[in-house]
Description:
The model is unreliable at 6-68, 427-438 and 459-463 (pLDDT under 50). This protein is α+β, with helices and mostly antiparallel strands. The protein has 15 helices and 10 strands. The relative contact order is 0.11. The longest helix is centred in the C-terminal third of the chain and has 34 residues, at 335-368. Among the domains are: 71-255 and 279-372, no CATH class; 382-422, no CATH class. Strands 4-5-6-7-8 form a 5-stranded antiparallel sheet, with no helix packed on it. A 3-stranded antiparallel sheet has the order 3-2-9.
Amino acid sequence: MGVFDFFRGAAGEVLAKNADDILAPHLHELLDVAHKDFDYSNQLPISQTANLGVYVSQLTGTEWGDCKTFAKKAELLLQKCPVSRACIEMRAQGIQNVTLKISDSRATKRMLASPNAVERTTGTFLKNAEIGLSVGGDLYVFYDLKVPGLPQMHTFRQDLMFKNVEKKRFEYVPGKLRGDNTPHFWFNYDAAGKTTAAFNRNGVQFNGALQHISYFDPINPLQGAGAGDSAIRSVQNYLAIDDLIRRKLASGGAKNGYFKTQGIYSDADLARVQTQMAGLTSSGSTQLLAGLDFEAAQLTFAELQLDILRDKAADAICTAFGVNSAMVNVGEATHANLRGMDKIFYRNFIGPEAHWLIGQLEWGIQQYVDESATVAVDETAIQHIQDDLDDKVVKWAQSGVVTIDECRAVIGLPPLPNGEGKELAGAKAQASDETGLGQPDEKPGGETSFNANAGDRGDRNNG
């Protein structure tokens, strides 16, 4: 009852708003093309000259479907909810461990070996990039080409990037955190989205470029939608249930009695106490320790179904991020099925995501660093892929229709020298000699050693 009332009250606040109440605060934004004042309590669209279509998702008035600032979303998903944090880390670590194949491009190899002084390694860069994509759906890669032969790449914070459609440029405005609207960098772009010129805050042009990578959002053409956007509602439900559990524990336990009465000696005394308790229950205004109401305090976690509701919310969070719940310790799992889940997770998310992200970065590197460079995922280093190839080679060898060198090529090994690998691969039978020593069940029985058990031990063959 307490949980139902809690969620009904939260939903009522949202549903009570009508269209005029929602549209009124934003009418000036639809007509204003000037810089917006920075305020984390308001919605912060990426475009300064956006049209009505951009605001469709932002005018719902809900906490979970609109584009709140990246800072608020990051705090909610990464700091407050352990389930969403674990899911995001699982996705990011999978991308971090991907091995790359890089062509013979000196500048590209040097940049990917150490993208910048902060992240230092490509793995860390990819991990941080995936965290940003998972939370907000956008990634802004800045290619710093000021030093010839020593290119670097950085990522800009999503909520500090603005697409000025009127001037056809991207603006990076970190000063908005302290009330300064002056762009620190801006990047002019052409109709294809390619950077044509880069300028610093003094208006001085320098050698640099910006690449915008995002998950496609069909209702917002100017910015992407990450998995975190679809998980926000479930995260808020999870945190609401978690807060109710915390307040119950702060009140003294899972189930408590807060009233002490004198001894009941007659039916009249019993009737009087029952009347008092009924009045407290029906009033709905009795508040106990830690802000609990009377009904919720008298019910256990099981009676409130908090354990079931929280598990359902956690499963919904995992579904939004595409992570099996058992992989983030939500539910039970064995070592065997965890290996299977890990393999499925790679095939369903890590593999496709890595190919897509590396392909996007390859496009940017070819445009701005080295047009002849190629960067790809090295799947021969992926254990899941290698296990499948090993199984395939075993089946081929058993069939006896392929050569040894062909089997070796599948698993990434060179041919055997002197043409030894030209023979067909096949299992070689081990024939026994006249004594029958080839197979264990044909070995002659020997004396059983002292104090041996009655089982069929190898000691019987000693003698």
